[in-house]
Amino acid sequence: MNLFSYVVARDFGFAPNPFNGICTLATCKPIIRKQAQVGDWVIGTGAKKKHNISGHLIYAMKVTDKMTFNDYWNDPNFQLKKPRMNGSLKQAFGDNIYYFNEKENEWHQENSHHSYTGGDINYNNLDRDTKYPYVLISTHFYYFGSKNFVIPKIFLELIAKTQGIKRYHDPAQVDAFIKWLEANHSNGFKADPIQFQNFVRYNGVS
To answer: Where are the domains of the chain?
Structure first.
């Protein structure tokens, strides 16, 4: 079992998407989406530069399923994760935005947080997101969002301190972290994302 850690620079409810009872990581962090397997854990912590919450736990998810973009797009269980621009904020930040059109031999990007205004394709986001076209899915997750808190010092060696990812696989330390998390917190959605006030596009500028 591996634990993947990274700094969540932007917490809009898009990556991760913690809504509808399932936490998904369907965009950004292509290396994690490629390498993580069912049974692994992914944790996201706060950014010092953006919100001055370095070392705070924003979310933790146990990977309970992994699928391709096309399977995610077509699966009836994840239709509510497709963005609706005329819907609520939760709907607008949907992360089910990609599928590969075999007839046209190209990727489709849905009108979303990762597209340009009007739904025009943002190829920078598309190329990065589809480099490894996998979605990580969790029905066993802890999403704290705006109610994030400081991770105990004994676990700080597990987490990434800067942009990029950290892969940690000391079974004893990972197991200790998970036992602490599960003993002190009930799983599921706890609070809205940190930046969950208005819908915005991400055009590659932090």
So the answer is: 3-189
What percent of the chain lies above the pLDDT cut of 70?
98
Q: Encode 38-76: b = buried (16+ Cβ within 10 Å), e = exposed.
A: eebbbbbbbbeebbebbbbbbbbbbbebbbebeebbeee
Q: Are 13 and 88 in contact (CB under 8 A)?
A: no
End-to-end Cα spacing for the chain? 32
| Strand partners of residue 23 | 138
Q: Is residue 205's pLDDT more than 60?
A: no
Check residue 1 and give its pLDDT.
Answer: 87
Q: How far is CA 71 from CA 67, 158, 188, in A?
A: 6, 32, 24
- The pLDDT score that the predictor gives to residue 206 is 42
pLDDT tens-digit readout, 6-57: 999 999 999 999 999 999 999 999 999 999 999 999 999 998 777 789 999 9
